[in-house]
Fold this protein.
Amino acid sequence: MGRVNSVSAKGASVEFSRREVTVTGEDNSENIEINIEVHMDGDMKGVCANISMGWRYAPKEIEVRTIDGVLIPSNRLGGAISVPPRVTDFDSRRVLIDASWEKSMIQKISSEPMVFSVSVDYEKTNDPTILLNTGRGIGGVERKKPEIGAMQIRKANVEYVPKTVMASLAQFRTREFQDNSLHYDNFQSANIFPRFDSYGFNGHFLGFGDQKKIDSTERNSEGIALGEGEGLYDRFCFVLDDIMHQLVLDYDLKGNEKKKLRKNIISSCNWVVGNLEHPEIKSSLEVICWACICLIRSGLSIGGRVGKKFSERGMEGGAFLFAKDVDYITTTSEGGMLVLEAANEEEISTPKLQLLSVMFMIHMKKAGFGIKKKEFDEIISRYWKTLRYFRSGKGFFSNLAHLDNDDYPKIESENRSTFLFMIEDWIRNNL
């Protein structure tokens, strides 16, 4: 049922019980302002709460926020206040309702105390909680409490704008998470990196750029990361990760610091090129995609003959994505194209490999891969259209094995899904 936790007022005296508030206006009051704290029952996960206020005279203004200050859109004439489900970064179990009445209303209220009930009812919902400007899932951006927590439907006389309309009005980064939250971050906010930083081919990229990790990495005399694993495969992956972090940091550095970092990047890229053809590396298409994306981004950042060499080697590694009749590629009944990875003597398709392949192709085009725009658009769209097979609604399926047998589909973890959403977000803004 919910309950009233506390009530305070200006220009009036108040009394309250768990579900009722009495407001008595003071003589000569110009305004009456009351603040009501309402506590919801339960954990509010997967549940929307509707708070009904039984006041006789609707307030001139009303504002609803969570106990930690997140705004919840409301309408003073709506009849009820809809409180979205609780998700990460948004705790809707306690809300503060600020309402105010002006002088013309006070004259009606002052004749006798205004007594109104406060009741709460609940309904289960699958609609996502929409959070604005949290920074969650955006690399390099500080996490913060959302500015607004809302729902994407018409509730209590408040109509929330569909996300398809929002996307056409402004530049938003959109991420969905498995806790059923939908996050929008406005690029015009001073705390959000602008589009060319977040989505380009230099600078910030998919959350890389950890200075502490770079500083703590053990290197050989050439500046190449030594890694922590015992085999070549583990070290190869570690070096790729190290290059990606350094590329982001290199973008903002100058002078000797930049020269030192760039020397490390060049040495590391040469090491990567020297090991690309090793059977242990060639057996993983996912690693090949990452390595070649890394080489192209390094080449674009470094420039000159050295940079061109890295970019060309990266493009060479991805030529199979544009070729016909390749063992790694299969065509769906609808004309889409899936990239297959060998695993445990079987060929499987994974969302990460599919996304990396599309992102890889975009990098190849940026680096000057020789293909006409019309042909490129046609091929990449065939890879892109198959991504819907991997979407589970709130995340991604780990693979598509469940389409060929009766096994229950495997879902990627929230952390992995967040990273995949970031890749998908990057792709959408570079197609």
Summary: The domain at 3-124 is CATH 2.60.120 (Jelly Rolls).
